[in-house]
Specification:
Number of helices: 10
Shape: globular
Helix content: over 70%
Strand content: under 5%
Strand order of the largest sheet: 1-2
Structural class: mainly alpha
Number of strands: 2
Radius of gyration: 19 Å
Order of helices and strands: HHHHHHHHHEEH
């Protein structure tokens, strides 16, 4: 519960902070829906991705830590059914919380940006897809966390992996020398996929461009889905073949 509250508090609070400090930091001379919506969604995504991932890890990792996973599997022998139920609960809870968060962030900051003619309405192209994409990404991070937690059976280790995958790894990869390998690695990062899903892209831009590093909202969604699915499948396989 505290994690879900954290998503709302940091998401809405971060966006509101960027809004109220807009004048002091310098008001853009030209309206850009991309910039405005980045201020709205990025705070929720940057913090929310970690919190959602940790929530996913804790959904099953905490049971391993406490030993309560054994009674769970006794009550429900079908381990994949247990994993599916936990993934559904974690994913939907985080998705609903994220959707509420980004909508609240948009609602409370729109009047602020409107004073400077920089408000992005729901009818503005790209706004609704980005709001939905942000919520979807946070849901996928929760599913990724469930898969990781199932794999490592440790809340601490799983949380570290989530932090590395969502935030630290993209930063580390960006420091690599430019080359085809580093460019590919930048493209496939979970955190970079989330960044693409929470920002309005260039209209008519490519779906995915390895050379320039461009990731469209659709490509980002696909990459994030792959991360979540691979984590869940790996966790499911290991769950089936090893002892509790």
């Amino acid at each position: 519960m505290l994690g879900l509250v954290g998503i709302v508090v940091f998401g809405v609070g971060g966006s509101l902070f960027l809004g109220v400090t807009l004048e002091s930091s310098g008001v853009p001379s030209v309206f850009s829906a991309e910039r405005t919506m980045a201020d709205v969604t990025v705070p929720a995504v940057v913090i929310g991705q970690i919190i959602a991932g940790v929530i996913g890890v804790m959904v099953i990792g905490s049971e391993y830590s406490s030993g309560s996973v054994q009674p769970t599997f006794v009550a429900v022998p079908d381990r994949l059914r247990v994993l599916s139920a936990k993934a559904i609960v974690a994913g939907m809870t985080c998705a609903v919380t994220a959707a509420i968060t980004v909508l609240m962030a948009w609602a409370v900051t729109t009047p602020i940006y409107a004073q400077f003619g920089l408000d992005a309405q729901l009818t503005t192209p790209g706004v609704v897809p980005v709001l939905a994409g942000s919520a979807l990404y946070i849901r996928l991070c929760a599913l990724f966390g469930v898969g990781v937690g199932t794999l490592v059976r440790s809340t601490t280790a799983g949380s570290i992996i989530v932090f590395l995958a969502t935030l630290l790894l993209p930063v580390a990869v960006s420091l690599l020398p430019f080359g085809i390998v580093s460019r590919v690695l930048r493209i496939i990062q979970l955190g970079n996929a989330g960044d693409a899903m929470s920002r309005i892209g260039e209209p008519g831009g490519p779906f995915l461009d390895v050379w320039t590093g461009h990731i469209s909202l659709g490509a980002g969604s696909l990459i994030a889905v792959i991360w979540a699915v691979v984590a869940l499948i790996t966790g499911a396989v290991v769950l089936r073949v090893r002892d509790v």
